[in-house]
Amino acid sequence: MEFTSWSFSKIWNASLELGRPDRPIKKREHLWAGEIGGSYIDRYLKMTGVVPTNPPNARSKRKFEAGNLMEWVVEMVLLRAGILVKAQEWLSHTYPGLLQVTGKLDFLAGGKPDYEKAREAVDALELPEFFGRAVQKIVDYLKEKYPDGLKEIVLEVKSCSSFMYERYDSQGADRRHQAQLFHYLKSKGMNEGHIIYICKDDLRLLEFIINSPSDVETFYKNDIEVMTKYIRDGVCPPKEPLVIFDNFKFRTNFKVAYSNYLTKLYGYENQFAYDEKWKREVAKWDRVYQRSINSAKMTDKNLEVIERIKEVYPNYDELVEIGKVNIDAVALGEEEDD
């Protein structure tokens, strides 16, 4: 009997692109913890049952599954070290008069390790030899440093690219991720959680501590208050700006680029079409802005770019003056080649 040839790559790609079933879009009066800090108008449309015009594509599903893989690695480390208390616990919190927020924490870890029980549980999985060696070093470290056990904390694990890793390393944890973790702390009445960023390119790891109480609650609660008003009043929020000015730089708006309603709200067929329209343009805006705050001589092309900027940001001259005052804080870019 002759067997037909087959392709491993086709099996792999098909399994990843299938992904988990999309969450059905239906009316709801609660927020997901992972939505805090996201686009108000996207959330409003989802919460009122509007079907997305731009659901997650194959690449998005692959990235999601890559994130799941990173979470699994962390779970195995915690389990092997005997400090995994609980995983994927659903938690809800509701301020009086506001919408309920619900979400699922990644891991609760700490306590008094039972190393032998944990070793048996993980050994049964027959993981690669290098994994066992690495985790054994972690176990040895815990035995030495924390003989009486560890404080229980919430761990929120995020995978990211090298580019985003460098941004988190220099600017700190994303405010949305801070709010998501704060939700779990608030729900459980705990005072400490850690955001873990794992770089998918080289497995570098960053860790940021979030406490409760902390100023993160102001951001968290304000977001819920605003969203509650939109939903209760039945008023659709305004669209997101196509270009944002942030930290003395013009940038494309990821809340537009990754919108599930990109076509419905902004008229772009997909993220590529949006990037094609704005990425080069915004790069020009930023270069000209750098020239403006340095009082460089403006070319005719520079002046044309400034006119285009003013169509979106009529207060451009004011932004230039702010940049001049804070010039030490501005990351100066390369000047435009005349």
**Secondary-structure content class:** alpha+beta
Mean pLDDT: 88
What's the CATH topology label of the largest domain? Answer: Lambda Exonuclease, Chain A
Shape: globular
Named CATH architecture of the largest domain: Alpha-Beta Complex
Strand order of the largest sheet: 2-5-6-7-8
Strand content: 15-25%
Number of domains: 2
Task: Report what the structure shows.
Helix 2 packs across helix 8 and helix 7 (175-188) crosses helix 8 (216-233). Strands 2-5-6-7-8 form a 5-stranded mixed β-sheet, sandwiched between helices. Strands 1-4-3 form a 3-stranded mixed β-sheet, covered by helices on one side. It folds into 2 domains: 8-232, Lambda Exonuclease, Chain A, CATH 3.90.320.10; 240-329, no CATH class. With 338 residues, the chain is α+β, with helices and mostly antiparallel strands. Residues 332-338 have low confidence and may be disordered. The chain is built from 13 helices and 10 strands. The radius of gyration is 24 Å and the shape is globular.
Write out key terms for the chains shown:
three-stranded mixed β-sheet, disordered C terminus, five-stranded mixed β-sheet, alpha+beta, single chain, Lambda Exonuclease, Chain A, about 350 residues
